[in-house]
Amino acid sequence: MLIIRQKTKSIAILLVMLLAWLTAAPIAHAEGMGVLRDTEIEEDIRILATPIWQAAGLDPKAVKIILVNDGTVNAFVAAGQNLFLNSGLILRAETVGQLIGVIAHETGHMSGGHLLRRGSAESAATFTSFLGILLGGVAAIATKNSSAIVAGATAGPSLGQRKFLSFSRGIEASADNAGLGFLEKSQESAEGFLQFMEILQSMESTGGNTADPYLLTHPLSNERISLVRNFVANSRYSKNPYSPAQIQAFARMKGKLSGFLYPPAVTLRNYPEDRKDIESRYARAVALLRIPDLDRGILAVDSLLKDYPKDPYFWELKGQMLFLNGRVADALPAYINAVSFKPDAALIKIDMARVMLETGDEQYLEGAIEQLQQASIIEPTMPGLWYNLGIAYGRKGDIGRAESSLAVAAKLERRYADAAYHAEKALKLLPKGSDPARQRAQDIIDHVEQSKQDDPDANS
Fold first, then answer.
1. Does residue 244 sit within a domain?
2. CATH number for the domain that contains residue 434
3. pLDDT greater than 90 at residue 434
4. Does the bond joining 292 to the residue before it have cis omega, within 30 degrees of 0?
5. 247 located within any domain
6. Do 133 and 170 sit in the same domain of this protein?
7. Helix, strand, coil % in the chain, rounded to nearest 5
């Protein structure tokens, strides 16, 4: 439990729940604001967005993508270069161009510094506090359960989202103008953005202003739509097609999200066997994993691997199917293939390390430690990583490093008393010197002591 202390008292408590994808609520019933982590989807969004960000003069590596587990249509930016995209927006978009158009609009907010121009300094500080807690919740995602999509940082139904993100129509028009300019500079069509705005206009006319959060946080006007329509009519790039790679990335994104977030029966109904496109095949394979129906699921994923033998995410999916059905030893080769084809995928490395540990075979201990250490460079704020690293070191008999790792996990989960306890044990066991594990333990003790001075209730 995280206690949020702020002057406004508008947000009192944030419950951070450590959930695997298997327990994620279906989109239709999703409440609150959960964060989804998935290497493939995050990478695909980044690939689609990079030309826009470069056109805006932003460093693509500096933009953080947060995929929100919420079935409503919404997207927003917060506290600088943090792009939030609801899963519902991706699933509602009909083409890759529509998603790119929304990203271009949100990039307009980023480049224009609209968040900083809105509201009082206190409101901005309050929202920054909220964002820090939310992103801290992302850091609190545990990988004690294997997952391709991991849900975490679940909070109350709105967390004041609408209050903090209500932009004026003037600012929205400014973001439109900037986004259209970025599309033009990157030589991409704005037709998808116009289509998406027309979809929103239809939603507004049928459901009123409260039909969807996007309509509240991004108010429409006839002038805005006319501006975009006129731009499309005059742009030399309006008929530019999207590349097959962009189209496939979007299709895979939708298929994967549908498979993981909708009830399996709904997914199988929406994607019948006679549909052979990549989106449908991916969605069906994930749905069969979740039922679970191992025999049919393996046939589905093997069919995908026959066509895409070097695809890391299909190998990852096969590993999950086998692992979650108790075939741990059989799952490991699939994960090894996934990591070999995507060596920078920290989330897959973490899952592979867990599978190695679950085999109970001591020959895999060093491999698990190596994978977790490599993953910690990319994802240093995931408690589950450090928890599993502590287990691996403990089994190896390296109790000092085990305690240091468990201290990091407890600190990231804001269990400061436990963090100090493990850190103190680590310092007693680890030799003096510049050992990173010892330094982490000392840093944690210093942090806990400082937090006690800053906030006497920090451990409550």
1. no
2. 1.25.40.10
3. no
4. yes
5. no
6. yes
7. 65, 5, 30
Q: Is the per-residue pLDDT at 246 higher than 60? A: yes
Same domain, 415 and 395: yes
Q: Please give the Cα distance from 235 to 39 (Å, whole number).
A: 34
Q: Which residues contact 416 (CB under 8 A, 6 or more apart)?
A: 410, 448, 451, 458, 459
Q: Is the pLDDT of residue 363 over 70?
A: yes
- Residue 364 carries which DSSP code? G
Question: In sequence order, which residues have a C-beta less than 8 Å from that of residue 82 and are 6 or more positions away?
Answer: 63, 64, 66, 131, 135
Structure tokens at 458: 């920090």
Indicate the number of domains in the chain.
3
- Helix H or strand E segment including 185: helix 169-185
Establish if 242 belongs to a structural domain.
no
pLDDT score at 114 = 54
Q: The whole model's pTM is what?
A: 0.82
Range of the domain at 129: 2-234
| Sheet containing 82-86: order of strands | 75-78, 82-86, 64-69, 34-37, 150-152
- Spacing of C-alpha 45 from chain mean position: 10
- Asked whether residue 227 carries a pLDDT value surpassing 90, the answer given is yes
User: Scanning the structure block, which residue is given the tokens 């997207």?
Assistant: 75
Residue 9 tokens read as: 């008292």
* Amino acid at the residue 127: F
Tokens of 40: 């493939």
